[in-house]
Amino acid sequence: MKLLIDGDIVTYQAAFHAQANDNTEEEARRKMDSTIRWSIAKTNASSYQVYLTGKGNFRYEVRKSYKGNRTAPKPLLLPFCREYLQWEWGAIMSQGEEADDLIAIEAARLGYENCIIASIDKDFLQIPVPMYNWQKDTLVEVTKEEGLRFFYKQCLMGDVADNVGGIAGVGPKGAEIALEGITDEKDLYNACLYMYKGRGMSEQDLIDNARLLWLRRKPNEMWEPPE
Questions:
Q1: Residues 50, 7: contact at Cβ < 8 Å?
Q2: Last residue of a domain, one of 104, 123, 140
Q3: Is residue 65 domain-resident?
């Protein structure tokens, strides 16, 4: 079983942890090492790969305001942490997309039954792969149907963390009610579209939001509505 590790969160957590303590590279390094080793041990992974987000992101071509709300200063040791994961843990750096996309693409290539994702990022709940959360020490199993429903719920709710707007006032409970009992993807899409148009939004609004939220399953993929 291969463990696909979200290095972006590993580095941010380590850099902020060090900053809150002695702010040394040694402290940051210790935090990264312990997080990765713990995740490998807890999942009994036979192999692993760490991923980091590099330069460029196709999502900015979809909407320039993507992640535009992230104005807080980054931790000082973040550059060191990113370099460390590359030369010590062999992290792969994405180009033109996010580390999340590389992880989702690799999961699809390996076969969903052959890997586990290590992250605390809820966005991975759209992938039908077990996700290990090292912060909560939990392993969440996600079926294909659950992953698909989670994605369309995201389309309704949006994602505040990434500055992706959904439908104003629709939260997790409202999204769940709107999609209750629906399993077919075309029907899920049409249910979302019905709600978008009911709030004066267009189908293009829905498509753009979906493209921002969807994690790629193959290289250079651009999400399209189900036929």
A1: yes
A2: 140
A3: yes
Q: What is the pTM of this model?
A: 0.95
Pick the closest to residue 225 from 202, 195, 204 (CA basis): 204
CA angle 115, 119, 120 (to 5 degrees): 140
Please tell me the total count of domains within the chain.
2
Q: Name the residue range of residue 181's domain.
A: 144-213
Residues 47-88 pLDDT 10s: 999 999 999 999 999 999 988 887 788 999 999 999 999 999
Q: Which residues contact 184 (CB under 8 A, 6 or more apart)?
A: none
Please, which residues bridge with residue 139 across strands? Answer: 132
Q: Which whole number is the average pLDDT over 1-25?
A: 93
Most distant pair of Cα atoms in the chain: their distance: 55
Note whether 134 and 151 are same-domain residues.
no
Q: What gap in Å lies between CA 39 and CA 151, rounded to an integer?
A: 25
108 vs 101: CA distance, rounded Å: 11
Write the CATH number for 187.
1.10.150.20
CA angle 202/205/211 to nearest 5° reads 145
- What are the structure tokens assigned to 189, written together? 């899409």
